[in-house]
Batch of 3 targets.
Target 1
Amino acid sequence: MTDYAAARTAMVDRQVRPSDVTSFPIIDAMLHIPRHRFVSPAHIDIAYSDASLPLLPGREILAPRTFAKMLDGARIGADDLVLDLASGLGYSTAVIARMAAAVIALEPDAALAETAAATLLDLEIDNAILQAGDPVAGDSAHGPFDAIFINGGVEVVPDALLLQLKEGGRLVAVQMTAAMGRAVAFIRSGDRFQPRPLFDAAAPVLPGFAAKEAFAF
């Protein structure tokens, strides 16, 4: 029988810490949240492996080291309100909920959202709301947010999302250009959103976040 606690410790010690992630809240959250509860049954045995895991066609759960380094770039604090987008089966929501004051999570697939919400309830994570919704639109009714976390690749970030950041707020995503990608934090300063490159990464571009094709004449 798998010792999941030992597997979490190994994940943090072999994947997260060697990637220069030393923030205690991130380490603490990833040691405590049972990642195997937030993957499909077919992938439970590899839930703590150093790899992204399939979720839906064109969707995946970010690899632990990528996820941890993005969290590091988001600089989430204990008093922060966070918007978690394309949250899948809820792992990112659960981890962020342990780090932040509250999390609003949106998942476009209703079945995934229902399963994720049930898992959060079962684990008694009571400072997160996970519901079916459009990540591209965000959730202006509950914003503005200290941080916005996008679980996947984007070619463009809609202005409507950036405008849901508080002053000094951070939006973190994997920005893709063709097959190349980089995790980037967009930081709000007044009406400007300054991109700050974090590290090289790649992830499938999420539905709705692809650049619109220009017409050629």
Target 2
Amino acid sequence: MPAEPRVVPRFAAEPPHEPLPYGRWAERLREEFLAACLAIDAQGEDVGEPGDISWHPDRTWHGHTYLPATATTSTGLELFGHVRFRTPEPGREPEELLASADFTSETAAEHPEWSLDLCDEVIGTWVGERSATAAITLVWGRALRGGGAIVTAELADLVVDQCPLQEGRFTLIAPDDYRGDFLDVKLFSERGEELAAESLYEDDADED
């Protein structure tokens, strides 16, 4: 068997374990996320009032579970972020909840050409061969095309994470920006047909 040409973490995060939040748990998460939204430095922008929060599948990495969220505001902007908590032992309540949030005017409603609506945040670093570093990145979003079943994260055509859709939403944790390679996020049908692909850096590439 030949040596692996690209040594990089693959499927480092645990798969989703729970359904999308509901009930009292969803309300507790909502309070944490909205508190983080109130702390955003909008720099004079009228962010508006948040609408319903869309929760995305949970992913666990390095002892913490991440629950990403998005919400459209009354001024047409989008709030995005996540609630992180220490992964509880069975039968115990989650502890050390910490939320982060930001906003953007770049929304799917303004970009009908998008096939995937993506958000991302770097949550850690991995040091590889010859001290090359990868940005461990939390990626979440929703499919804007029908017929999808699973979403993958690919680095130089190597699948490094995947997540089945839950109500059209997904969450990935994957290495990015490693040895000159960057993540591509792809949507596949149950039959393995590629339906859509987006790069986290597509807008930057277009500007260049």
Target 3
Amino acid sequence: MESTDLMALAAALVFAGVHLVSPWLMFLDVTPRSAWLSISGGVATAYVFLHLLPELAGAQADHLGGAAGLPGARDVWLMAMAGLSLSYAFERMARVNPTGRGAPWSIYGLHLGSFAVYNALIGYVIDEQARRGLVSLALYTFALGLHYVVNDRALVRKHGDRYRRSGRFILAAAPIAGWALGAFVFVEHRYVALLTALLAGGIILNTVKEELPKERESNVWAFLGGVAAYGALLLVV
């Protein structure tokens, strides 16, 4: 196993750990919304717009065009739009149904399953980030690790004890499964780029949906502070 694979595995374990420590993160479940969650949302937003999507844009000419017959930029943005749209659809289906113990198992399974796929996709992309270097991997792990915290608190709010008893373990395993797939199954780079674009769209939607609802009373200054601070870091490194 190469050193990049080991670094990627370490990042996957960090992601898994966020869900495993969920019972100890209840202090974040407050109204008005915890400033830490808003900062986390800002960090993820800055990462997508200033690192992940520009990274894809720079790779288009090399990996998405030419012999493959793919029109590069259009495919990337279509996949980002698809990621956002799919995330919205799954979230909408979950929101129009009862929460907590009263939620039908089918709805709970659908919601949890969509996040398991989402987490696995995040895990799958780790290997690509590790191959770009330690700095790229560290930026990815930090931003997406905070993003996981936000998603975890949303799932606790939606499904309560049901999620804490079983769901968090499934989501903890998902990024490790994604890492294993990325490390041991070869996929052409252009398809990895398209999957990364799909992920970017999902991150955008999952961040925005947590910050905008009025009942969350989100901390706009904390969110903007997260965007500004992490954005400045990304522009420097």
